[in-house]
Structures are given as C-alpha cells and as structure tokens.
Amino acid sequence: MTEMAGAEMDGSDGVRMTWNVWPRSKVESSKCVIPIAASFSPILPLPSIPLLPYSPLTCKTCKCILNPNSRVDFSAKIWICPFCFNRNHFPPHFSAISETNVPAELFPQYSTIEYENPQNLPPESSLPPPPVFLFVVDLCIIEEELQFVKSALRRAVGLLPDNALVGFISFGTQVHVHELGFSDLMKVYVFSGMKEINKDRILDQLGLSVGAQRGAAAVGGGLGLGFSKGGVQNGFGHGIVNRFLLPASDCEYTLNSLLDELQTDQWPVKTGNRALRCTGVALSVAAGLLGACMPGTGARIITLVGGPCTEGPGTIVSKDLSDPVRSHKDLDKDAAPYFNKAVKFYETLAKQLVNQGHVLDLFASALDQVGVAEMKVAVERTGGLVVLAESFGHSVFKDSFKRIFEDGEQSLGLSFNGNLEIICSKDIKIQGIIGPCTSLEKKGPSCADVVIGQGNTTSWKMCGLDKSTCLTVFFDISPSDRSNQQGIANQQLYIQFITHYQNPEGKMRLRVTTITRRWADTSTNSEELVEGFDQETAAVVMARLISLKMEMEEEFDATRWLDRSLIRLCSRFGDYRKDDPTSFTLNPSFSIFPQFMFNLRRSQFVQVFNNSPDETAYFRMLLNRENVTNSVVMIQPSLISYSFNSPPSPALLDVASISADRILLLDAYFSVVIFHGMTIAQWRNMGYQNQPEHQAFAQLLQAPHDDAQMIIRDRFPVPRLVVCDQHGSQARFLLAKLNPSATYNSAHEVAAGSDVIFTDDVSLQVFFEHLQRLAVQS
Fold first, then answer.
1. 201 lies in a domain?
2. Which of 20, 23, 207, 381 gives 532 a disulfide partner, CB atoms 3.0 to 4.6 angstroms apart?
C-alpha cells in the first residue's frame, strides 16, 4: 500500500474517531455504548505537510498552537484561540499578514503542520545526534541458532548509517560488556547474573562513574593515553563513550571479529536442568550503560533472546526442567510464583528507560516461552518493537530484523524521543491512552476522573515511534452549567495533538494536528450521530479496551461483556418493532459491526485457551500499536478467492468459500495462508503447471504467491507464510479463522468439494439470530 493510500485510510490527519459527531451530555454519551475515542498516528507520512522553519505561535492561556480554526482580526493583528477564546497578539515578524497574505498555519487544508528546530537551538548545536544501537545477545542457545544470529547481526551492521553508534553485550550465565574502543586488545567486563545490580555499581564497574573517570583521566594523561578526538562529546568529556559505543564505520571490522569468536555459553548445564540465563541483569546493565553514555539521545537496546530467564531478576521459571513455564491457567489461579516479581522488575526498568529516553526492542525466537508477557510493560512503555518467531533462522525473524535497518521505501521511519500533548475544548476530558507510550503525569483541567490505560495526564512520552505507531485516546464529556446555558448544539469542538520528536535523521520536529468535530443534540435526534459512526475504528477500540480489561480486571468475562455491549448498541440504534425479531434492521453505518464483534469473540485477543501468555502478550502489543486498517485485519482476516472462472475477488470468511477448484489467500495479519482446493492440489502434484499447454494453470498457481509477497513486503513484523492443501495438516491455519456455517453436526447440507469444521462454536447466522431476538426484547 502506498503512503498516500495509507494516509487516506487512516484519516486525512492520521486521526479516526469512533463517533464523528459528539453527543452533548454525559448521559447521552453513555447511551452510545461504544466509547468516544480517537485512533491517532502521531507521525504517519501524510501527503504535502508544510515544514515551517520557525517556532510556532502559542496561546498565552492554554498553550494551544495557531491553527486554521483560529479566528483572526487582520486589522488589529490579533488571533483568537478556538480552545479558550483568549485574544493573542501576533508578534512583529507577522506584521505583513492580511486577508490576502496568510501564513501557512491558517490555510484550511493544513490541519496538520510541522515545524523544524522548534526549540530555537543555536546553529552550532544543529549537528544532529547519531542514533545508538546497543545489541544484547543471548548465548544460551544451540550452535545452529547462534550461527543464524551472527549472520543477522553482520547484515544489520552493514546496513547501519556510518555515524550510528554501536555497542555489544552478550549474556548467558553472566553478562559480558564488550569494549569496542581498542580493536587490538579486546576488553570484556563481566557481571554476575545471580542478583540485581544497581545503576551506580554498573557504572563503577564499567569505569563510567564520575570518580572512576577522573582517576582514568589522570592516569591516561600520565601515560599519554588521551581518547580519540572523534569521540562523542558527553557530560563526562571527550570520548568516554568511545570505549563502548563506536560509530558503525569505525567498528565494523572489530564487531565482525568479535562475532567470529563468539561462542555459545560455556557454563555447564546439569542434566534435567534449563540453561542458566540472566536476561534481567543483561538489560539492567544495558540500560545503565546507555544512561551514563547517552542520556536523552535516541538509543535502542535491541535484545535477541532464545529462551526463558532462569537466574537473577526477571526470572520466569526455575532451572528444573520438570517445572513447566507458567500458562494462562497458572496466571488465573495465581499459581505462577515468579510472574509478579518479574513484572515489577520490568516496570522499574521501564521507568529508568523512559527517564533516559531509550527504547527496548525485543526479538524472541524459541519454541517455548521466553518471558514476553513479563517484558511487555518495558517494551510497550518505551515504544519498542517486538517480534516473536520459532527460530532465529525463520523468515519471520530474519526479514523483520533486517527491516529495522533498511532505508528508502522499506524504512520503518524509526524516530525517537517523542512527546505528545493533547489540548481539548473545555467540555472534553481525557481518560487516557492505550498504546506504546507512558504517562508524564502532567495533570490539568482536561484530565477525567475515570482512567483508561495511561491516564491522569495531558502529556505522554514516546521514547520510540515509527510511521505506523498508533495510539487510542479515550475521551469523556462533562459540560459545565455555563456551556449548557449557552447551548453548544451548533458549535464545533476542537482537539489539538502536539507531537515533539526526533526524526530518523536526528533532527527535532514538532508536528501539530488540529481536528474539529460537531456537537449534536442527540436526545432529540440521533440521525447525525448514526451517520458519523466509524464501525472499523469502533471494532478496534473495543478490541483494545477488552484486551486491557482482561489484563487489569480479575474475573472479567470478556465474551459476556462484548455480547451485552452489542445487544445494547443494537437496541439503541437498530430499527425494529418491539418483540418482533424479523422486523430488525441496522443502518448501513452499523451493518458490519456485529460481524466484527463475532470475529473478535473468536479471536486470539479474547480466546486465550490455545495460546501461551507470551503469544497473547505479543498479539495484544501489536493490536495496541498498529493503525486501524491493520488492526481490523487482526480481528477479522481478509479472504481472496482465485479460480479459472473469475478474476481474484474477495470471498466470504466462511467455510462455504472452500471449493475443490479454488485457491484461497487468507491474510490474518500474523500469518498469510495460501490454501489449495483438492482438485488444484492434485493437478499441481501431477505437474500440469510445467506443461506448455497449461500456462493458464501455472498463472493461477502463481497469482496468490505474488499477492502474498506484496502483503508480506509492507508489513512489520513480517507475517508467517503458510502454503497448504485442503485436508492437509496445515489447513487448520485457514479453518480456525472461518465462520463455521457447516460443522460436523450439519454435514448433510454441505456442497460437494466444500469442507466442514469440527467445532461446537455457533455460526455467524445463529449469532445474528440470537442478537436480533435479544435486541428487540421489551
């Protein structure tokens, strides 16, 4: 998908709302059932955003930034803030403005605008800081896996920009910090993995504490060991960073030599035991090192983990192999002895990384769990990337890992040090945000009493963000008596998103997006409200909210909560005669919403039975950070049918779409499935596609593969590609996602060449009949 098309689907400003017309009162908004929320992509590439080379004009009272909704008195050179109605004078350099000479901020089409160098930095500091990549690599893996890791790292280092700073830490039973500064004599600092180490001790041992450096400087001066002038300047003086973090162009040879010599962890493992792996200590050391060398600079800790932590802080399972890794059942029954302590450790680590402005990325490749569920808090709050694969040799890991470092069209647009501030019209309160960010606890009159996700603030930190990062903001309506008296029915409401961030080139940017929506008196007329409903955004918001509730609330019955919400929504907005299910109809604005909810009930976000806590955490992290278009595919996969009789066309997500002479392409976001009907598979096995007279068949076989590659190319993490045949063992990847309209109970109705699903789940049709019956009850 092109960036232009992507921007179009995610709203002209990267903003999509559940309701595009807002009810006036708290009571009316509670009757809407679906929360009033916005899905916002802070740095989505938009066509033609103007970049202004000066600082923005802000309102003296509410700090809102000049925008197309501001009213301007050109003769008095005054602008009126649409949020607080304060009158602000234009500064002298705006003296030439007139009705025919308007600055870009006031153009109606520029509701999103960017400012460069927004902090008025002096020219000498305009050299952007280099991006920092600190690799943290698990060595408690088998030799074959280590070879895959080495080749992925070599490729990554080759793709890095020359000025990017690189560091390297390896860990197993102990943590090894590799000093890259002197290639002739490689030094390694070793930390025990058995117990928690505080930041001061880490810095002391690495010679980065202030006292250790003064001593080193004195000795270095006496021995004539002065650091290289090319060193990165830091609070500690020249080049102290250069011992552990070196520009990629300077250390490529050193790193490759280091990788050549790298071996799997040599610590002996007793029979019947797991390897001793100290993931938590390794990440503590990495955070301490970056905090000393590069505080407040765009830096990523890229962690490659191949198994569970069994030693020191962050432990998720005992060393004894007879103890299984915690399951969902264990978590529900509070029978996971290590879980809460590990989560607490990663919460503390997250706080430290957020204060430093650094990102934790996690690449987990193992057949068993590695602790993604525990690490989720640190990855999500720092805006890190997460990829879960079965092996470091699998394309899901290899291709995703490469994408981080790629440039051009394939670039993820990795940006750093984001800060988001939201300003609202005065009758609107912010409940919080679900997504990859952390509350900065900046309270204000716009904070709601009810908190959802990261709340109690109007400002959030995003240490890492990229082109597809998306946040869900929940709003509350609480009109004051005064605004009720004034009557706000015909007025507009305004929301401004202000995002400070450091772009991939290291330059500071300020993006301002100002959106406006209409208030409506829904107590007398709900038509406007219905017309402004966005069912895709609503489905995604409900999925994110239910995932959060399942994690935060004990004894929460997700399916029941969803069903009740849907029944209330259909009762409120459906057209029907009381107690007559056959009369029930839904406005087109709501028509596919019940189908989304049916698929959400069956999805991996709600049904955790077949997944491990790691997989569930992984699915939810991606749901919370992807845009609406991608998140809808996670909830309700798309299906395309290929046959001789017709061009490729969308098919119903139903078992009836299976046919012996068809190929189906399923995009379930995390996996892409190419499914061959029985006849097609037989012809292929006989090799018809290789015969010149069957060119059409060869093309039919190739078409879904080409389309699958297009999906895979544009997506991060790279999905798993499954190629299977009807009645084959891997056909389950398709069948699990289809509506079971034909099951083993209804086998007599099945068309020839189609399939049945062995399940007791209800079909969409039965679900909808129940819904109609319950919605029309008096």
1. no
2. 20
Clarify whether residues 176 and 301 are in a common domain: yes
Distance CA 376, CA 372 (A): 6
Question: From the centroid of its chain, how far is CA 610?
Answer: 23
**Strand 165-171, strand 37-40: pairing:** unpaired
Q: What's the rounded Cα separation, in Å, for the pair 425 and 238?
A: 49
* β partners of residue 497: 422, 513
The pLDDT confidence band at residue 408, using thresholds 50, 70 and 90, is confident
Q: Span 299-327, mean pLDDT?
A: 96
**Is residue 309 a contact partner of residue 315, using CB atoms and an 8 Å limit?**
yes
Angstrom distances, CA of residue 732 to CA of 145, 514, 673: 28, 46, 10
Tokens describing residue 102: 């308007």
Residue 257 and residue 177 in contact, taking contact as beta carbons nearer than 8 Å: no
Taking 60 as the threshold, does the pLDDT of residue 54 lie above it? yes
**Phi–psi pair at 616, nearest 5 degrees:** -60, -45
Beta-strand pair 580-585/575-577: antiparallel
Distance CA 348, CA 190 (A): 23
Closest among 15, 268, 13, 280 to 136, alpha carbons compared: 280
Instruction: Answer yes or no: do 701 and 739 share one domain.
Output: yes
CB atoms under 10 Å from CB of 228, counted, come to 11
Tell how strand 508-520 and strand 112-116 pair up: antiparallel
Question: Could you say which of 348, 381, 410 is where a domain stops?
Answer: 410
CA 475/CA 426 separation, integer angstroms: 12
Match 């595919």 to its residue by tokens.
633
The answer to whether the beta carbons of residues 165 and 199 sit under 8 Å apart is no
Structure tokens at 377: 């808090």
Indicate if the pLDDT at residue 423 is higher than 50.
yes
Neighbouring-strand partners of residue 216 = none
CATH number of 263's domain: 3.40.50.410
**Whole-prediction pTM value?**
0.92
Do residues 512 and 639 both lie within one domain? Answer: no
Contacts of 699-706 spanning 24+ positions with Cβ under 8 A = 700/642, 700/643, 700/644, 700/663, 701/663, 703/642, 703/648, 703/663, 704/640, 704/642, 704/648, 704/663, 704/664, 704/665, 704/674, 705/674
Q: How confident is the model at residue 2 (pLDDT cuts 50, 70, 90)?
A: very low
**How many other CB atoms are found less than 10 A from the CB of residue 391?**
18
Give residue-wise pLDDT tens across range 109-126: 999 999 986 555 544 445
Residue 157 lies in a domain: yes
- pLDDT at residue 231 above 50? no
Query: Which of 237-246, 283-292, 550-559 is predicted least confidently?
Result: 237-246
CA 530 distance to own-chain centroid: 30
Bigger pLDDT: 516 vs 481: 516
| CATH assignment at residue 65 | 2.60.40.1670
Quick one: tokens of 622?
Answer: 């991606």
**What interhelical angle do 143-159 and 248-261 show, nearest 10?**
170
Q: Are residues 289 and 372 in the same domain?
A: yes
Q: How far is CA 542 from the centre of its chain?
A: 16
CB 23 within 8 A of CB 29: yes
How many domains would you assign to the chain?
3
How does pLDDT run across 258-312, given as a tens digit for each residue? 999 999 999 999 999 999 999 999 999 999 999 999 988 889 999 999 999 999 9
**Distance of alpha carbon 325 from the chain centroid:** 26
Distance CA 245, CA 255 (A): 11
Whether residue 211 is contained in a domain is answered as no
Residue-by-residue DSSP string for 22-88: EESSHHHHHHT-S--EEEE-TT---TT--EESSPPPB-TTT-PBP-TTSEEETTTTEEE-TTT--EE
The last residue of one of the domains, among 410, 432, 458, is 410
